[in-house]
Specification:
With about 400 residues, this protein is of the alpha+beta class. The chain is built from eleven helices and 16 strands. It is elongated and about 75 Å long. Bound molecules: (2S)-amino(hydroxy)ethanoic acid and manganese (II) ion (2 copies). One manganese (II) ion binds next to loops.
Length: about 400
């Protein structure tokens, strides 16, 4: 079964906005193809399939009785630009395979497998749209922003409320690649996630003065890109050797972006993560103060736009213990990557199981999963379902 899971991940990787790479952002046209393939696999496994107003695809496998509690198994189907085949995708297909392995046997609980439409935050700069719709935490401003994309995809934004989790939820479990070097360095296939690091995402925009590159003396410039460059160097130098804190400038936008024009505008993205919220917030303030000082010195205006303020989230102890019993050799660890589980954890018991990332590589076409690790995770998932079944029977 684990080989089927991996080959299906590779099959879905072909649904892309960018031929030759896997790039699939929120409700982009290739997501229709993904829905068709995933929907067929869900039906094959005995699930009723629906697509909610935010484009989450949902497969429901009912329990022995209509008002049974519900276990949700999920992850995301969108990708970063030029992604690998497994980030997010693996968790959805693992859920479908686990339901398929029940071969029609009905459990004391229902199972809903969800493929979230948006976790990476690429199209609108704001992540976790799919799982926030399930949690009921989409704000009005964001709903207004994404409504055209929802309509363009053929969905009805007035039905967003129906996407919210309802009924008696047993909990949420997410299988995901680690996307880092820890499991490989410990030569371990699986990790049980204890907590997910908090993250701040914001943009810094510098507004200077475009001018002629050849006639404007160096000390008479308001160069927006030079200011942005100083911030990037500051971040890189300041964080050297600072274990536990990551700060990444992944995007830059320059106008008018011509070799013979002094840049009048430069905008950079900043992504800061740390498992202690106070450290993350302090460093965020430091970067913004440094940007203000650089802007003043260079006679450039500066503004910061917040995109995400996500505190560190701990997984549910009891629910995670069930996963730890199902995967007794797994490493207990913190996640540096954000996941939909961090959005759902405040609303329902949440647990995550990591699979090793060979080379610690992710958000890259060479992202990989070892077949034996997929088999170990599938086996742990099967045990997890059995543990829930017994505990549901005894604790009812
Ligand atoms: O960026 C992240 O942490 C995740 O891959 N969305
Ligand atoms: Mn990702
Ligand atoms: Mn992911």
């Amino acid at each position: 079964m684990h080989n089927v899971i991996l080959s299906r991940c590779r099959e879905l990787a072909q649904y892309t906005e960018e031929p030759g790479f896997t790039t699939r952002t929120f409700l982009s046209p290739p997501m229709h193809g993904v829905h068709a393939a995933v929907g067929a696999w869900m039906r094959q496994a005995g699930m009723e399939v629906s697509i909610d107003a935010v484009g989450n695809i949902r497969g429901l496998y009912s329990g022995v009785n209509a008002n049974a509690k519900k276990l949700i198994i999920g992850s995301h189907l969108d990708t970063v630009p030029r992604a690998g085949a497994y980030d997010g995708i693996l968790g959805v297909l693992m859920g479908i395979a686990l339901v398929g392995a029940l071969q029609g046997r009905r459990m004391r609980y229902a199972i809903e497998v969800i493929g979230f439409s948006e976790e990476e935050g690429i199209r609108y700069g704001v992540p976790f749209i799919g799982s926030r719709a399930l949690a009921g935490t989409l704000d009005a401003a964001l709903i207004e922003k994404i409504t055209p994309a929802i309509r363009e995809f053929g969905l009805d934004a007035t039905k967003l409320k129906d996407a919210q989790a309802s009924g008696n939820i047993l909990g949420y479990v997410e299988f995901h690649i680690e996307q880092g070097p820890v499991l490989e360095s410990m030569n371990q296939p699986l990790g049980v996630v204890v907590a997910i690091k908090g993250q701040s995402r914001f943009e810094i925009e510098f507004l200077g003065q475009a001018n002629h590159a050849g006639t404007t003396p160096m000390d008479m410039r308001s160069d927006a890109l030079a200011a942005a460059a100083e911030v990037i160097v500051f971040v890189s130098r300041f964080t050297q050797g600072m274990g536990g804190l990551t700060c990444t400038v992944g995007k830059i936008h320059v106008e008018p972006n011509a070799s013979n024009v002094i840049p009048g505008l430069a905008r950079i993205s900043v992504d800061i993560r740390h498992d202690e919220d106070a450290m993350r917030e302090t460093f965020q303030q430091l970067v913004q103060d440094e940007a203000a000082e650089i802007a003043a010195r260079r006679s450039v205006k500066v503004s910061c736009t917040k995109l995400l303020e996500q505190p560190t989230v701990f997984m549910d102890e009891e629910f995670t213990a069930r996963m730890a019993v199902a995967a007794p050799h797994a490493v207990h660890m913190t996640s540096g990557a954000g996941h939909d589980a961090m959005i759902l954890a405040p609303h329902m018991p949440a647990a995550m199981l990591f699979l090793r990332s060979p080379g610690g590589l992710s958000h890259h076409p060479a992202e990989h999963v070892l077949p034996e690790d997929a088999a170990a995770a599938f086996e742990a998932g099967r045990r997890f379902l059995e543990i829930l079944e017994r505990l549901e029977v005894s604790h009812g």
